[in-house]
Design brief:
Blueprint lengths: L6 E4 L4 E3 L7 E7 L2 E7 L2 E8 L4 E2 L1 H6 L6 E4 L4 E7 H10 L1 H25 L4
Antiparallel strand pairs: 1-8, 2-7, 3-6, 3-8, 4-5, 4-7
InterPro entries: cNMP-bd_CS (IPR018488), cNMP-bd_dom (IPR000595), cNMP-bd_dom_sf (IPR018490), Env_Response_Regulators (IPR050397), RmlC-like_jellyroll (IPR014710)
GO molecular function: DNA-binding transcription factor activity
Organism: Bradyrhizobium australiense
Length: 124
């Protein structure tokens, strides 16, 4: 598959994937911005906004579970590259630095999530 077939372009408010959907792809932001959000009817709570060079969708590509949030383009001409499960496994096996980058990001995101959950539960 050529690299061009792995790149998609989105406009503002275009949904890249929805919470609860299945998918075995990781996405890398090439241009623009992507909001990762929880939806509650018409209400949207943005968890994080990602920019060029950042990635999302790593949980589903790793464990095959459904998407935990919705990804929405937040800038005109937002371009993302899709990395499917087979390519992801290849990159992890051939590029240890790539695997460490994914683990580092997962760790930071889990710590941030734990902090939010702790505060919501009435912690300090």
């Amino acid at each position: 598959m050529t690299i061009e077939k792995c790149i998609n372009e989105f406009d503002v408010d275009d949904v890249i994937f929805e919470e609860g959907s299945t998918g075995r792809e990781l996405f890398v932001v090439l241009d623009g911005k992507v909001e990762i959000a929880k939806m509650n009817g018409a209400s949207k709570t943005v968890i994080v906004t990602l920019g060029k060079g950042e990635f999302f969708g790593e949980m589903a590509v790793i464990d095959g579970s459904s998407r935990s949030a919705t990804a929405i383009a937040a800038a005109p001409n937002t371009r993302v590259m899709r990395i499917n499960h087979a390519r992801f496994v290849y990159l992890v096996s051939q590029q240890p630095a790539f695997a460490l980058m994914i683990m580092d990001a997962l760790s930071k995101r889990l710590r941030a999530s734990n902090t939010v959950a702790f505060r919501a539960a009435g912690g300090s």
